[in-house]
Design goal:
This protein is α/β, with parallel strands linked by helices. About 50% of the residues lie in helices and about 10% in strands.
Length: about 1000
């Protein structure tokens, strides 16, 4: 049962059929509510995030909603909402019929709701839904006080954003205050990312759908839009300019029986002036005034004193409104309770159209990790970071094409665009620096210094040094104060490790690497000389056509010596271009070195690290041999650098005021290509190879990628858990060049049939394809058949060992053998074929003309089936070797196979470690197969087979009288006994 304070919709089923929002405690019986329209009591009962369900007498019962239940339950609730919201006898049907009559306020509601329903694409996928039947989790709102916000600022006291104020519901903001007076003006404030705009949209949509019945009209304005309009116009003209449907309603403004609510979102965009000299008093609704003056008079209560106003703002702008004009301050405190975070994740992740069972498991792991990892719960205090968590999980697990084509850097850039697009740090500062630009220059510097020192925790002294507090001018200190009040909590949080309580960490560790990468690609890490040189180069480049004319004119009036000095300016671009070029090359070298460090060769790949950071260690499936180091930070830094150079991300950053110059992008790309080409020729551990492919994928430049991967002939990704995302990355990156791959090793990669389907275009171009130990069954074999029958198939060696192919799957492989012209080596060791599967394979083998080696060891094959297969193999035109060891072949069967070999020479049949009275020349090969695969085999069964082989060796040794052969037998027997002993002790 949840115990957090959450606004819960309650239903008045006895009279008006409307929904009313009460402040109640989830999991505790709700306090009696009264319908504000007719004074009747609302439906009461245990509230567990419930939604109404249709009964015989109307909407009368509730469906309990528990945390992290299966997705089917969530879909069932949504269907209940849909049925509830269909036009019918209830209020919703009446509302739809009223719309058709053309009532101006109803038309206004409909169009306002339609406008607010158009969300950014990213927010639609993972953010809130404002449809009538959608579930929505509101952040905690608490009563605030201006004095608390204006207290002396340090970096440390910005960490407790809400204190212990009283919680209040969004629909109770206009209730009477402590003195019993009705509240007219409400200021709703919160730092970046707490959900101010989202909450306001939800408030407006509630009014559009029949809530907030105390207000007859709601008029909403964006202060950002108003800040761009300096022309005088009247309040009525301001309203009708945006809402044409309200022309007929304007005469009712000012009436005592017509309640109006004005909503002004983003008050920090306006430099309000309440002095009479700055904003004259005016109550005339038809008098042309500037928007700032109109707002000042509305807030004063001089214009439309009957109207109510709700304003949202960042904390730094609170002082622009005199406290005497504010009835209530309300602070948005985000998801300060982990249960609210869980509700948000339940709402956003349950509705994703992906595998329901897998999504349910993800929700459970996320829930447990929120309880264990307090740092993650602290990050998800901000609803924005809950969105980022959902987006990242969807990126890691979704199989939809539109999600798979995203990039991790793109998700982080979109995340920042949703929170900072168009935001100016301080509208009153002449520099009007964008908020994100300030963050990139200041926190980017801190992040990059931490990256260089491999440091993730920062003291207040580190922050003071990074922001150079002692060296700042008055204007710079003002900007720093605004940053501390509005943005600091978004990026930095208190460290929760014992003994480091006074330290700061980035709210999520990946953001440090993103900002460090942004700091680098923007050129902020360069020296002053290099930055000046770059600016001179850029300026002169813009006026290069006019430069000669200007110098020629000046030469007529200036002495020759001075003119010669001016001519030196022409050399600057090349000079500083060389300096800058070296700097960018250094960036690329740093990236390459950081990307492929020797000490991290056994780390999980980056995608598994991200997964683990969100879901905990339960997330990725680690290979038993993996040696995971504790320090896995800063793996994303080079990947983010590559991703930030992608054209799409550069365009988004440009909207944030963080432009990346074409010259810088070109130079970094050129340096990257040189060093990545060198790295592509080296053999890398599987996890580092996956990171290499991920970097190329994030770069989102097919031409660049093709030039790099063309030299990659061997791809070893064994033991890397190949999720749908990783399979897509592999197919996308290797698919850019179309070159022939010599070897692709995907042993123990958890590949499923869907992954095979994704990777078939790459498989087709691999000469040696290793798919051992992946659990592939008949469904995957169907796709492999189609691949092998393709006329462009280049596969020569295919290893499907230790997969449950069975006789159903081998039928598809057999069909492929009948028509394939490239395959020479096929290994079906330990694939559960049995006698039936071997007979099917033997039938198709007769039609094959190119196979040279066939491995059917450890498949429970008996004498009769083995003889049939070997008989076909003896007549095969190209067959050279058949592996049949570790099968259920008797001593008589082995002797028959040996005699068959002698009668028809040309094919080697590997059945035992002994051949007649001599040791098989392939005895070491057979023992190597055991040592490589014993971990995935039945130990008792393999010990039994080895014991039989040992007895066979001993019997053959006794039959020979040659002392050299006897010594050879004894040597091999000792090897077998050693392997048996290790298996028995469990040391192999």
């Amino acid at each position: 049962m949840i115990t957090a304070a959450v606004p819960v919709s309650m239903l008045c089923r006895r009279c008006c059929g409307r929904f009313h929002v009460l402040d109640s405690t989830v999991g505790v019986r709700a306090s009696p509510g009264v319908c504000p329209q007719r004074g009747r009591p609302l439906h009461q009962g245990p509230v567990v995030l419930s939604v109404p369900k249709r009964g015989r007498c109307g909407l009368s019962s509730t469906l309990p909603r528990t945390l992290f239940s299966p997705r089917q339950a969530a879909l069932g609730l949504r269907r209940e909402w849909d049925r509830m919201c269909c036009p019918g006898p209830g209020w919703h049907g009446q509302m739809c019929r009223t719309m058709a009559t053309g009532d101006p306020i109803t038309l206004h509601k409909r169009r306002l709701a339609a406008w607010l329903s158009h969300l950014p694409t990213e927010e639609k996928h993972y953010g809130p839904s404002f449809s009538l039947g959608a579930m929505h989790v509101d952040p905690v709102i608490r009563e605030g006080f201006l004095q608390e916000n204006m207290k002396h600022l340090t970096f440390q006291n910005r960490l407790d954003p809400c204190g212990c104020q009283r919680a209040i519901g969004i629909h109770n903001l206009f209730d009477r205050d402590a003195s019993g007076q009705f509240v007219k003006n409400v200021v709703l404030y919160g730092t970046v990312g707490t959900g101010k705009s989202t909450l306001i949209r939800k408030l407006i949509m509630d009014w559009c759908h029949g809530g907030l019945t105390q207000f007859d009209l709601l008029v909403s304005f964006s202060c950002e839009d108003l800040s761009h309009n300096s022309a005088p116009l009247s309040l009525k003209r301001l309203i009708t300019k945006k809402y044409r449907d309200l022309r007929e309603v304007l005469p009712r403004l000012g009436s005592s029986d017509f309640k109006v609510l004005f909503v002004f979102n983003g008050l920090e965009w306006l430099d309000l002036d309440f002095r009479l000299a700055g904003a004259e008093l005016c109550s005339d609704l038809d008098e042309p005034l500037t928007p700032v003056t109109i707002l000042a008079n509305l807030i004063r209560g001089y214009m439309l004193p009957e109207a109510s106003i709700i304003m949202t703002t960042r904390p730094s702008a609170l002082s622009r409104i005199p406290a005497k004009f504010v009835g209530r301050y309300a602070q948005i405190c985000g998801f300060s309770d982990p249960d609210l975070q869980k509700m948000y994740f339940q709402m956003c992740l349950s509705g994703l159209e992906d595998d329901a069972k897998e999504m349910s498991n993800i929700l459970e792991m996320l829930s447990r990790n929120l309880e264990k990892q307090k740092q993650l719960a602290t990050a998800c205090f901000l609803p924005s970071y809950c969105w980022l968590t959902c987006a990242t999980l969807h990126f890691l697990y979704s199989t939809k094409a539109d999600v798979l084509n995203q990039s991790l850097t793109g998700i982080y850039t979109s995340f920042l665009r949703l929170n900072f697009s168009g935001e100016i740090l301080d509208i009153t500062d002449p520099s009007r620096i964008s908020m994100m630009r300030y963050v990139a220059k200041s926190l980017g510097k801190l992040a990059h210094e931490g990256y260089k020192k491999r440091q993730t925790c920062f003291s207040e002294e580190d922050l003071q040094r990074c922001f150079e507090v002692e060296m700042k001018s008055e204007e710079e200190l003002n900007l720093l104060t605004v940053f501390q009040r509005d943005v600091f909590r978004f990026f930095l949080s208190p460290c929760l490790e014992p003994g480091k309580e006074q330290m700061f960490v980035f709210t999520i560790s990946a953001m440090q690497e993103y900002l460090a990468a942004l700091f680098v690609v923007m050129g902020e890490h360069r020296s002053s000389l290099q930055r000046i040189g770059s600016e001179i180069s850029e300026t002169i480049g813009k006026v290069s056509e006019d430069l000669t004319t200007i110098l020629n004119i000046m030469a007529k009036f200036l002495p020759i010596r001075i003119f010669a000095l001016f001519n030196l300016v022409r050399i600057f671009p090349r000079l500083y271009g060389k300096i800058s070029g070296k700097s960018q090359d250094g960036i690329a070298q740093t990236m390459a070195v950081e990307m492929f460090r020797e000490e991290d060769s056994f780390n999980d790949d980056v995608l598994d690290q991200i997964n683990s950071s969100i879901l905990g260690k339960e997330g990725p499936m680690l290979h038993p041999d993996a040696q995971v180091q504790e320090n896995e930070a800063f793996e994303l830094f080079p990947i983010f650098i590559g991703g930030l150079l992608a054209q799409h991300n550069r365009a988004l950053l440009d909207q944030l005021g963080c432009s990346i110059k074409n010259f810088a992008a070109f130079e970094i790309t050129k340096g990257m290509k040189k060093h990545l080409l060198k790295s592509s020729l080296k053999k890398q551990p599987p996890s580092e190879m996956m990171d290499f492919l991920f970097l190329l994928y994030e770069f989102q430049n097919d031409r660049f990628t093709a030039e790099v991967v063309r030299s990659m002939k061997v791809l070893d990704l064994s033991t890397v858990k190949m999720t749908p995302l990783k399979c897509h990355i592999l197919a996308r990156v290797i698919g850019t060049s179309g070159h022939l791959v010599e070897t692709l090793d995907l042993t123990s990669c958890h590949i499923d049939p869907g992954a095979v389907r994704t990777l078939v275009p790459i498989f087709r171009r691999c000469e040696n394809l290793d798919l051992q130990m992946n659990g592939l069954g008949p469904e995957a074999c169907r796709d492999l058949r189609d691949m092998l029958l393709d006329k462009n198939c280049a596969v020569k060696t295919l290893r499907l060992c230790n997969n449950p192919i069975t006789e159903d799957g081998v039928a598809f492989i057999g069909e492929a053998l009948s028509g394939n012209k490239s395959l020479t080596h096929l290994s079906l060791l330990h694939t559960s074929l049995g006698d039936a599967g071997v007979r099917i394979l033997a039938e198709h083998l007769e039609k094959n003309t190119c196979l040279k080696e066939l491995n059917l060891a450890y498949n429970s094959i008996t004498d009769a089936a083995a003889l049939v297969l070997v008989d076909v193999a003896k007549r095969h035109p190209t067959m050279q070797k058949v592996h049949l060891y570790f099968n259920n072949i008797s001593e008589e069967g082995r002797q028959s196979l040996y005699e068959l070999r002698r009668s028809r020479d040309g094919v080697e049949v590997l059945v035992s470690l002994a051949e007649g009275t001599d040791v098989s020349q392939h005895w070491s090969l057979i023992l190597n197969v055991v040592t490589k695969n014993v971990k995935g085999w039945d130990h008792e069964r393999i010990q039994r087979h080895l014991q039989l082989l040992l007895e066979d060796l001993q019997c053959s040794r006794r039959r020979t009288s040659n002392p050299w052969k006897k010594a050879k037998f004894l040597r091999v027997e000792n090897k077998v006994e050693k392997v048996l002993r290790k298996i028995h002790e469990g040391s192999m």
